[in-house]
Structure formats: C-alpha cells, structure tokens
C-alpha cells in the first residue's frame, strides 16, 4: 500500500506522479500517453495530406494541457470550444485562437465573449440576423473585433440558418457591422459522425458539402470571401477533407476514441483515421457476490452511458453489463476478476465522460507520469 | 442586463444572490426553496408516523448545505454516502454521522475511511468475510471504532452476501474483530424503486423484508442485535416503513424528485410521498431555426439522460426532444419560446444531474436567495 498520509491533498486527487497504475484511486480517468501521442501524429498527417488546417475541438477533453499538445505536436491552428465559459477557461490557460462553434444570445454571455477578444482571437457562430446587433454592440463596448461564421444547417437539423440566400444575407449584415468581421461558414454535420456505414456517411457529407459549396459560391458572387469553411468530426473528416470545399477540420474525439466511434468503419473496413484507444476509466472490483457477477466502482457518475455502456479493455470473458449511480455490474463468463483488481473501461462516449472528472491521470506504460486538470470541467454556461 | 463586470469571479458562478431568475447564466441547477422545504417536512412526517429514523442519502445532492437541512429541519439522524471521497467531503463540512452504503476494499480507501472515524461516527457495509481483517486493521491503526453493517442481497442482484446463515457468519466475524462494531443489516433493493406499479413494488419489498426479517431473527438467536436495519428509497419507502423489520429509511431523491420518479405511482394513484419538483435545470433558448424547432443550451453535460430525457416544466406545447453534448432540441407543437428565454427542465434522473454541476442556485420564488456548492461533486473515488 502506497502511503498517502504525508500528502493530505492526495485525498482530492486520484493519483500522484510516479505511482503504479495499481495504486491509483478509482474510478479515475486515465490517458495512455503513448497512444495519445500517436493519435496526435496521425491527425497531423491526415490534415497535412489534405492540405487543410486542423482546429481541434476541445469540448472532447476540456483540458488546456491537451489543447496545447494539439497545437504544438499535433499541428492545430487553434481550438474549438462549445461554450463561452469553456472558452474563458482556455483563454485564461493561454490558448490564443478559439472558435466558439455555437450561437451566443444572452447579453451577459455576449459581453463575456467580447472581453475574451481582448486577449485572444475569438470567432463565434451566428445563425440569426437578430444576433448581429447585440454581438456588434458587445464588441464595440470593449473596443475589440469579434470574427463571425455564418452557421448553416447543412442537413444536421439542429442550429443553423438555411444555406444559400438567407446565409448570404446574414453574412452581409455581419460584414457591415462595426466590431465584427465576417470570417466564413460553419457547416458541421453532427449526426453524420455516428453513421456506421462508410458509403452512407460519404453520401451524407457529400450532400452537406454540396449546399456548403453553393453558399460559398453565392458569397463570392456577393463579394464575400470565406477565410474559414469549417466542419467535420472524427467520424466523417476524410469526406470533408476530399470535398474541396472545407478548409478547417474540427475533429475532437480522435485524441481518445471511444466505444461508439469504434463502431464507425472507414472505407477500408478499419477504424476511421487509424486512431486507437487512449482514454480509459480505471475501475476496481469491490464485490464478488456470485461466480458469474462482480461489481466495480464505476457507474453513471464516472461514465457517460448516453451512447452505450463501456467496453472492458483487454480482458476476455468479462463484460460491463449494467450501470447504476456508483456501481457497475460485470458479467463474468469465461474470465475472472479479483477483489480490488484494476480494470480499464473504454467509455461509450468520451466527451461527457471527461466532463465528469476533475483530473486526467496520464500514464506512460503502467506508471503515472503526470496529472492534468480537466480545465473546463463543468464549464457549460 | 445585470452588470457582472465588477465581479470577475462571477464568471465562475452562474448567478449572484439577489439576482432575478431571468439573469441567471445557463444552464444552471436551480432549487425551489419553498418546494424543497415542503419535501423535507413531508419526509419528516412520514418517518415520524412510521416510528422510524430517516438517514437521508446525500448521494442525490452531494451538498453539505442540504444535508444540514435534512438533519435539522428534516429530522434526519444522519446521512448516507456512497463513496469514501463523498464521506470525506461531508465530514470536512461538519456532518457527524455517516453510513457509507457500499463496500470498501482498496487498502488506501480503508485507511481513508478509518481516519474519518476520528472525526465522525462512521458506519460501512461489508459483504465478504475477507473484508473484515483489512477493515479491522485500518481501524486499529487509527485507534478508532468503525461500525459495520452486513449487506445482504435481498433480491436486488448487485452487491451483498446471501441472507440467512452466510450473513450470520459474517456478522459474527465482524463482532469478533478488534476496532469494529457489528451494527446491523443493510438491505436495500435498488431496482424496486423504479417499479411503476404499486402492487408489484409492494410484493418485491415484501419479499426483501421477509429474507431480512429471517436474517434478523437468526442473528438474534446468535446473540447479535441489529441496531440498524437499513434500506428503502424514495420509490419504495412506504412498504419498508410498514414492514416492521426496517428501522432506518435511506431515501434521497425525495428532496428534489425527478422525471423518472414521477412515473412511480403510490397506492392511491398519486405521487409517492406527495413529493413535488424542487430541482430544475434552467436553460435558455439560443437558436430558433424553424417554427417547429428551438435549440436550448442544456445537453448531455448539463443533464443526465440515463433514465430518460428531461420534462419541460410548466409549459404547454414545448417538448425536450433530443440531447447532444451541449445542445437540447425542443420540439415546438402548439407552444412558443423566444430567444434567450429561460425554461425549467425537470431532469430525468436527479442524482447524476447534480453531479454535473458546481453550484445549486437556490431560488425563493423568482429571486436568487443563495448559492450552495455541490460539496462532493465528482467525489466518486
């Protein structure tokens, strides 16, 4: 047993640098650094081969340390955030180029966003002409320029103005507004990321790219150039990359992968992008009531289950069979587990799983190399 | 627009005391204090009428402030926690009587648990004779007494030793171990809480109470009295209360209610216990792309969806139709919503929803009265 007694604050962190994996307090979010670095390198290679910028989505990990690695080793031009509070956390941590891939409508949030532009390049999405005046006034109040993308609904059915003429009208309003700069289009197709069949996914993105190209062309005719045509996620990026329309990829999950993305097949039948599992929830067995059942300490508060239950990693004959708030039931069928044994789980969905934890325990092999705070954890407002 | 500029730290909290509900930064966890107080009073009355102790489960809210209200106004004898780190947070905040309703097997966690007994009454569950020696050694190391309940599997199919003779053998081992005190039985039936039909729920708890009564009797024959026979949740407590076997109720969700518990019918066809909605996720509309669709700012990182999507509160013709990480899609069918309008959502499942947030915004009517930290948020290890 590792002695934590000289380290009171240890009770607020799940591990200490230098510790063996078997001494980590569970459940804990662990990152395989070697796998993470290989994923960073793969994505850099993919973006370079396509001649595109990578603007990595930080909503997946919410970590300023991983964002810095994406920009440094991973070659990203900047990051995406989804919320103003998430962007605030990243600007405070020194990230200098952020696209908020979302609409901001509340007057206080618009003010907060404009203040960030005093310290970083800030780009935001707009899908409604009524948003232009308030955004412009916030920028002018702080004497800054906020860049704006027109978000179009390219088939995803969530936010976004209609492509074509309505989008052009909105772009013109932005271009004419003091304190704002029209920077291009946001054309992200979320549901496409999770279409398992590559041909169906390709067709969905082809349709999205088509309406996007048409809008870019109409904007050009109206004298408005798109510096950024952004979209794409880990599931679909090869299709946006070859479209000839998009120039910035917004992939996020590629650094970690998750059980849901493992279902998504590339055109060659392998994993999209060749990415490997770098993120795990480490759990311990705490009860062994029957030969065919064990209970581990990672449930709904340690794992997001919206996209399915986690997969047990690297173990035969052991399956994660059900989650309650603080328990996971393991079905034992041909395998075995011992009391207090550590087991790695691949989360069903990495983004909301990371948001449950305060720390990433970063492993080199089986040893804790460092701890990274989940910088923007809970920053959803 | 409320001016937050003199209050930099305001960007880390979703509201300030005295603020109107319409100025709260969203998404935020809000509590209706009047409804919360009525729920506390209802549960106190129910427990008193049954002649039972209430040991409120703090895993639902993870708030030391609400735990203190449950013990004070709500008449609880103490609280339950589910994890050692959750108990640590509550002991640090001054709570003096805690049952950890779970097994603790990791040697470091056993040491942490024993240290808590230097500052509070600590009771823990045991379901395996192999756990007795390590727990006893941890208690002796710190010169404390840790109380232990034998957890029996009364039909829930999760943790727990078999009722009857195996449970008695375990109790005898605890009673004989230095540093430990045998305190009774833990006989909680989790799945029963969510059986909608009252007759089926009654039958399930009757079966659980039967094996529990048999085990209590065998223990008595062996010279071991049960100070605590604990179990029951918000869905089933009327049945445990009338069983004549249980003497401590462990209800948690009663303070808040959620959309899942609204499905659970009492025998008179009404809500179990008469509890009302006191917890909401406050969200704002940020996009209105089509007449039949709006998009709000509360998705998977603001709301747990494991037990279903949230219910829109107090609004006709508006339905929460789908959650992505940071967005909620509202189907508009007969109602209407405006950009930046605040809407209350009743979470599908209150426990993991509270664990997503850092603050409870406590409302008196439509005004913020105070903010409470989610004391043990993320304390799952």
From TrEMBL, chains A, B:
Domain of life: Bacteria
Keywords: Lyase
Claim: Lyase is one of the keywords in the record: yes
Pfam annotation, one family: Ala_racemase_N
GO terms for MF: D-serine ammonia-lyase activity
GO process annotations (BP): D-serine catabolic process
Domain D-serine dehydratase-like: 278-364
Family, as annotated: Belongs to the DSD1 family.
Record's protein name: DSD1 family PLP-dependent enzyme
Organism of this sequence: Jiella avicenniae
Lineage: Bacteria, Pseudomonadati, Pseudomonadota, Alphaproteobacteria, Hyphomicrobiales
């Amino acid at each position: 047993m590792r002695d934590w007694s000289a380290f009171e604050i240890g009770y607020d962190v799940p591990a200490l640098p230098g510790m063996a994996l078997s001494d980590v307090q569970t459940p804990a979010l662990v990152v395989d650094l070697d796998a993470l670095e290989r994923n960073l390198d793969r994505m850099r290679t993919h973006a370079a081969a396509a001649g595109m910028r990578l603007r990595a989505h930080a909503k997946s990990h919410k970590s300023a340390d991983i964002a810095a690695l994406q920009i440094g080793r991973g070659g990203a031009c900047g990051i995406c955030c989804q919320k103003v509070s998430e962007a605030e956390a990243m600007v405070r941590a020194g990230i200098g180029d952020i696209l908020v891939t979302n609409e901001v409508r509340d007057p206080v949030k618009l003010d907060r966003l404009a203040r960030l532009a005093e310290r970083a390049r800030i780009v935001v999405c707009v899908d409604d002409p009524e948003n232009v005046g308030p955004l412009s006034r916030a920028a002018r109040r702080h004497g800054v320029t906020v860049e704006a993308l027109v978000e179009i609904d390219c088939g995803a059915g969530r936010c976004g103005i209609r492509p074509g003429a309505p989008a052009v009208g909105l772009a013109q309003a932005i271009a004419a507004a003091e304190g704002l700069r029209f920077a291009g289009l946001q054309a992200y197709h979320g549901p496409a990321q999770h279409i398992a069949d590559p041909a169906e996914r390709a067709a969905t993105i082809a349709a999205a790219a088509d309406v996007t190209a048409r809008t870019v062309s109409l904007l050009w005719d109206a004298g408005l150039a798109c510096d950024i045509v952004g979209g794409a996620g880990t599931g679909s990026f090869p299709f946006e990359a070859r479209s000839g329309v998009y120039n910035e990829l917004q992939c996020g999950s590629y650094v970690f992968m998750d059980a849901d993305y493992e279902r998504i097949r590339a055109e060659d039948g392998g994993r999209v992008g060749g990415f490997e599992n770098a993120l795990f929830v480490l759990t311990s067995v705490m009860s062994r009531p029957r030969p065919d059942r064990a209970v581990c300490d990672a449930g709904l508060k340690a794992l997001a289950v919206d996209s399915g239950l986690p997969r047990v990693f690297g173990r035969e004959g052991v399956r994660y069979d059900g989650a309650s708030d603080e328990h996971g039931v393991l079905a034992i069928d041909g395998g075995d587990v011992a009391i207090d044994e550590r087991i790695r789980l691949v989360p069903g969905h990495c983004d909301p799983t990371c948001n449950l934890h305060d720390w990433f325990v970063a492993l080199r092999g089986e040893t804790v190399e460092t701890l990274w705070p989940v910088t923007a954890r809970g920053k959803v407002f």
